[in-house]
Structure formats: C-alpha cells, structure tokens
C-alpha cells in the first residue's frame, strides 16, 4: 500500500504524476490523505487519475466542510467532458473511493450560450468498467456538477447545481441518503432548472435515488424546477442515452414542478416512452415537503406522461439489481 499525505501547499497533480512514473504494481492500493484547507486544482493544473491501482482519497479530519479541492474549469477552457472537470478519473481506473471532502468547480456562468463554456463538472468518472464509491462528500458547481459512467455509489453526499447537475452514460449510479440541492442561477431569475439528464446504458437502472432529499433555492417568479429532462436521442437499440431515473422514498421540496419530469414541451423524445421496474422515469413512495416542513404523499397521477408509478413488486426487482451494484 502506498500512503501519501497532501497539504494545501502541495500539488495533488504532481503527486499523481509521481505515482505514474513509479510504475508500481497495478494491484497495489494507493491511499491519499488530504490535510484540512483548500487544495487548488483545474485550469492548467487539471487533476487526472488514470491508474488501475485501487485509489482512496480522504480528508484527514473526516469533515467535508474543512477540506476542499477547489478550482475553475469549464468547456471554454478545455473541450470535452473528460477535460473540463476539477478532477477526472480515466478509463483505466478500477475502484475509486472518495471520503469526507469537498470538490468544487468555481466557474460562474456569463451567458446563455452553452457552447461558450457553461459546462463545468466538479468530478468526471470517465470509466465504463470501474466502480466509484463516495461517502460524506460535497460536490459543488452550477452546470454538470457530476458526470459518471459505469457503476457508482454516493452515500450521504451533498450535490448542488442548477442545470443537469447530475448526468452521464452510466450503468447504475446509486444515490443513498443524499441531498440534491438546486441553486439560484447567477445570471438572473426565471430560468428553468433540472437536476438530472440521464443517458443511461440500454436496459440498465441508470440513476437511482433512495431516501434522498431534493431541496431548492428560490429561482424567481416563473422558474420551473424539474427532477429530470430528456437528452432526446435515446432509442430501443441505442447503446446508451436511455432516460432512466428512479426515485425511491425520496423527499422533494414543493418548489419542484409536480410533473417531476419534462420533455420540454414535446421537443425532446423520451426513451423508454414509459417507465418500468428497471428503466425509464419512475418513482415509488415519494413525499412532497411543504414550506412549513410538513410532508404529504406525492400524487403519482401528476407525473409527466412518460413517468411511471412503481409497484411493490417493481421495487423488489430494482432492489435486487441495486444490491449487485453495491457489492461491486
């Protein structure tokens, strides 16, 4: 096992580069401990880990609010998803564990043209076959905060953003006891917001939220907030881009639109066209949290027409599939 301690005055990218030069055995575990403080990243010093060695990065104090990996990056600075995050994990990764620190992309939107660089991930797990486990983490950005492929499990984490701030071409991404927080748009009030855009693998569970809280800031008069929207190109025989999101016993602020999902007025195709136990837009046991804190059961009849109210049997099928992910 290789143990490395990094202080805010050190350079995480340099430490990873050193490990690469060492050419250590691929089965040797690497453990990186981050001392409290703000560790800078991104821009010309992007952080990229692409070793097969199992990796753990954790804060020394165990408190995400005391330890942060922070930097600015975006599409305008570095083109393509795998290049514009604060930290990226590449295709060669096997198992990555992150515990008890914050990753923040500080990029601030300056215009309405996405091509000019508003996409700004905090983390990019760009690995179809690996497994990402995050516990007690905070992920902060505005647009595209978390991008995941393959398999991932987020436990007791906090994620914030305003447009598609969780997305990716995943097989299964499990969010367990997490808080998903929609923030104000820095460009002004009234703009719509979306927590998720799923491009899940064909016939796979996609993004699954269990016992999670969906909270939101006031985005101004006329601003609608949705749990998910379609990317619009999913098809029966496509490898990915399926609109698969499940809400299981989640608590959703009344600030969110009661339809939960949107095809943006019929301008974006949704596939599957109707949810099921394992795929599509679906929910079970959702409650709506009122402004005074009271909770009322969600009326599934209010779902957007592609949404699906799961049965107890559907839930059992999904839970069995999720257990396979949790033990990877």
UniProtKB/TrEMBL annotation:
The keyword Hydrolase applies. InterPro entries: Pectin_lyas_fold, Pectin_lyase_fold/virulence, Pectinesterase_cat. GO terms for biological process: cell wall modification; pectin catabolic process. The keyword Metal-binding does not apply. Residues 65-229 form the Pectinesterase catalytic domain. Keywords: Aspartyl esterase, Hydrolase. GO terms for molecular function: pectinesterase activity. Coiled coil: none annotated. Pfam families: Pectinesterase. Belongs to the pectinesterase family. PANTHER family: ACYL-COA THIOESTER HYDROLASE YBHC-RELATED, PECTINESTERASE 53-RELATED. This is Pectinesterase catalytic domain-containing protein. It comes from Treponema saccharophilum DSM 2985.
């Amino acid at each position: 096992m290789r143990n490395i301690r990094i202080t805010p005055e050190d350079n995480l990218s340099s430490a990873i580069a050193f490990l690469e030069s060492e050419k250590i055995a691929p089965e040797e575990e690497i453990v990186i401990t981050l001392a409290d403080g703000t560790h800078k990243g991104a821009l010309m010093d992007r952080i990229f880990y692409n070793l097969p060695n199992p990796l753990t990065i954790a804060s020394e104090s165990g408190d995400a609010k005391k330890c942060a990996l922070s930097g600015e990056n975006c599409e305008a600075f570095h083109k393509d998803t795998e290049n514009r995050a604060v930290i990226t994990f590449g295709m060669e990764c096997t198992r990555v564990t992150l515990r008890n620190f914050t990753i923040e992309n500080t990029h601030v939107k300056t215009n309405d043209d996405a091509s000019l660089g508003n996409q700004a991930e905090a983390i990019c797990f760009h690995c179809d076959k690996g497994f990402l486990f995050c516990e007690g983490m905070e992920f902060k950005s505005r647009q595209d905060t978390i991008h995941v492929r393959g398999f991932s499990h987020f436990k007791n984490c906090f994620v914030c953003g305003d447009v598609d701030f969780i997305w990716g071409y995943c097989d299964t991404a499990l969010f367990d006891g997490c808080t998903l927080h929609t923030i104000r748009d820095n460009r002004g009030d009234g703009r719509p917001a979306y927590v998720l855009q799923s491009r899940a693998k064909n016939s796979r569970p996609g993004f699954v939220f269990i016992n999670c809280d969906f909270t939101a800031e006031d985005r101004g008069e006329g601003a609608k907030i949705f749990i998910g929207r379609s990317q619009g190109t999913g098809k029966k025989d496509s490898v990915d881009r399926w609109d698969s999101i499940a809400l299981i016993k989640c608590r959703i602020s009344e600030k969110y639109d009661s339809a939960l999902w949107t095809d943006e007025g019929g301008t974006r195709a949704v596939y599957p066209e109707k949810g099921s136990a394992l795929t599509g837009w679906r929910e079970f046991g959702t409650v709506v949290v009122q402004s005074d804190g009271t909770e009322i059961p969600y009326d599934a009849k209010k779902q957007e027409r592609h949404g699906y109210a799961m049965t107890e049997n559907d839930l059992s099928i999904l839970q069995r599939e999720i257990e396979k992910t949790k033990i990877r």
